[in-house]
Design goal:
Mean pLDDT: 91
Number of domains: 2
Number of helices: 11
Low-confidence stretches: 8-19
Strand content: 15-25%
CATH topology of the largest domain: Spore Coat Polysaccharide Biosynthesis Protein SpsA, Chain A
CATH architecture of the largest domain: Alpha-Beta Complex
């Protein structure tokens, strides 16, 4: 592992509400279209960021974005370069490179394609209230699919974990943190845009997962890049697509506007696929949406009562 820069553990940003939180993020060989937004959305709630560039290049494809982020500008960044082995090794490198000042605090499990809004700040306010036996605080991710206008799943997701001696990541692709004791969850929903991309980008990700031993089916269907279409890549998943009527995180608004123009053909094709959902699909999706809503309503009541959570 080679450390490129450690720009200080100090913090001069008065807006930061939880000085003990350090963000851990990994980036790879491809340019991340949402990286600038992801970093911007966590800059005011994390005191420091450790970013591990796994591209193996002297100058990775995301270097300029990382160098321009608020963490770098204010001297709150540790920037690593490692050769990618698997996701656990990449995340463990972030743990190892965490400055000593943050070793006893909380880490944010951050992804380059997930953008947050005020929900993350609300979660940070709860951290000091958690009992010492709580090792992790989860939120939820809304997973957009094919377009910024549709999502298909919402799942519980690790957000913050305590940095403790011996705590490590295990697993090549779907990495898990061990040992990990008690976990709590808050009804705080982040926006995951990993599957809002071009069909070619989706296949590129599948190739990486296959190289790590994960069974994939998309590559079997895609004989060549020339044959890729939104229907081929997301057709089955878009049967589960639900229309999004909320607001996207403020940090992502400008990027979304730009990509709506650049990827207009892809989004138009996705619109046609969703419009062709059967009556059965739409009824099933309405039930799914109601179930997601009920889960969040329950979590809201629980979080307010137990932790005083207010988003």
């Amino acid at each position: 592992m080679r450390r490129v820069a450690s720009l200080g553990a100090g913090n001069s940003d008065a807006m930061i509400s939880a000085p003990g939180v350090v963000a851990h993020m990994i980036v790879g060989r491809r340019t991340e279209p949402y990286l600038a937004d992801a970093l911007s959305s966590i800059a005011d709630v994390c005191a420091h960021a450790v970013i591990n560039d796994n591209s193996g290049d002297a100058g990775g494809p995301n270097d300029s974005t990382i160098g321009a982020c608020a963490f770098a500008r204010s001297g709150r960044l540790t920037h690593l370069r490692t050769v990618f082995i698997d996701f656990s090794a990449a995340r463990n490198a972030c743990i190892e490179a965490t400055p000593e000042a943050f070793r006893g605090g909380w880490a944010l499990f951050a992804d380059a394609d997930e953008v947050h809004g005020e929900e993350l700040r609300a979660m940070v306010r709860v951290l000091p209230r958690l009992p010492s036996d709580v090792d992790a605080l989860d939120g939820y991710s809304r997973n957009f699919i094919g377009s910024f206008d549709y999502w298909n799943t919402m799942h519980r997701r690790l957000r913050f974990f305590r940095l403790a001696p011996g705590r490590r990541w295990e697993g090549g692709v779907h990495e898990r943190l061990v040992p990990l004791g008690r976990r709590e969850a808050l009804p705080a929903v982040g926006a995951h845009y990993g599957h809002v991309c071009t069909p070619e980008m989706e296949v590129e990700r599948e190739r990486l997962y296959k190289s790590l031993g994960q069974p994939v089916t998309l590559l079997d269907k895609a004989a060549s890049l020339e044959t890729l279409t939104p229907a081929l890549v997301w057709g089955e998943q878009l049967r589960d697509a639900l229309a999004f009527h909320g607001q996207h995180p403020a940090a992502a608004v400008a990027t979304i506007a730009r990509l709506r123009v650049e990827w207009a053909d892809t989004f138009a094709a996705v619109d046609q696929i969703v419009a062709a959902q059967s009556v059965f699909d739409r009824a099933r999706n309405a039930i799914r949406a109601a179930n997601y809503g009920q889960v969040l309503v329950f979590r809201v009541a629980e979080a307010r009562l137990r932790w005083g959570f207010r988003e």
